[in-house]
Amino acid sequence: MIPAKIGSHTTPIKVAGKGSERTRLPPIKLNLLALTNNVKVKCELCNQWGSLQCAHCRVTYYCCEEHMELDRTLHEDICHRIEMLRQPIEFSPSQDTRERMKKQKRVLLEEMYEYTYRQGQTSMEAGQYDKAIPAAVVSAKYAREIWGTSAEVIPPLLVAAECYVNKGKLGTADGFLARVLCIELETTNLKPSIKARIKRNEGLIHQAKINYQDALECYAEEIYQNTEEFGPTHIRTSGGYCYLGHMFQLKANELTALSLYRQTVDIWINTVDPILDEMTSQPDVPVIGALKPQQEKQWMYECDKLEGLKILTKCYTHLKEMVTIEMPAMDIIRSIYAIGCIMYMNERYMEGKNRAQEGITWCNEKNLKAHPIHKKLLALNKYCERKIYKEDKSLLESQSMDNIRTEIRLDSRSGLNLAI
User: Fold this and answer.
1) Which of 153, 252, 326, 365 is the most buried (most CB within 10 A)?
2) How many Å apart are CA 277 and CA 398, to the nearest integer?
3) The pTM is what?
4) What range(s) does the MYND-type domain occupy (predicted)?
């Protein structure tokens, strides 16, 4: 399902598929002059004329190899669904049948919008901007197809804008943000959380242009909008405190910055502490008899965990950069603990253990062994070590079972040879 590069060999390339082996075919070159007027061949990413066609779904086009390569990871996952989605609805004399088919297509479109937006947002929070941009652009395209020019188009456009800011392409980011602002002017009753995301993007662009006062005002407005929807102590409000604190730090007001970083870390610790207690208090007991295992509880959305890691890492870094006041050791240790907790929740146990040990080292150096945070770090270190031990044990058991199966096969073959 991933089109191979132009100029490569024309034989099908075997690639791993879901459940079965698939072949990767080279793209089909189109002669645009030979197409009829009603054939739309627009690039999946930039909406320009596309001369390269996916050889699998045959309904996806690209203007150049670069855009094809950018979209290859996402397109591999959704190629088979795009093929179904972009087929024309079959004619039926029954109106009920036609309505049912239209409804099925809309449901599929909404699923594709949710999937591509989630992929874009998660990749952006993980710092994978080249992977996030195509997903965000495709998600915005599905949103326009479903709802037209409405508020649902804004979130994926903001993801793309933030990715371009982080890549240093401010002109492109400005273009995406301008489209968002146009939609905002035409939309009534926009949710405060979306307004907050818009202000975050405006602030990032101003910050990149070293317009610190404008950026500060945007981050303050972001906090206000998120407070309207989630409250002042919600994790989705915490990012604004962090960014606002960094602006005060750049303006040499480190006491105000310290209070905002402290507010950010407190919000995350108050959120992850109960979750960690609940996760570690549940015994790992195998299911007995006919009881069915309960569905695994979702403690926190993946994008929230990634956002938390990004925000807390910023706080940790900025706290260590304080120059006009004494280094706030306790705030640094608390940020380390919060990062370690999210690592544990994300099943990144070795990284969580490293963070816990770093915090323990800080406590030992600053004579904070009697502080409750030291006890929490010791507990986090123990939880991570326990999970690492279980993973290593299960891996060894799996390897030993593979070795036993190999020996059985070899013994059966030697026995067969002896019998012959």
Assistant:
1) 153
2) 30
3) 0.79
4) 43-79
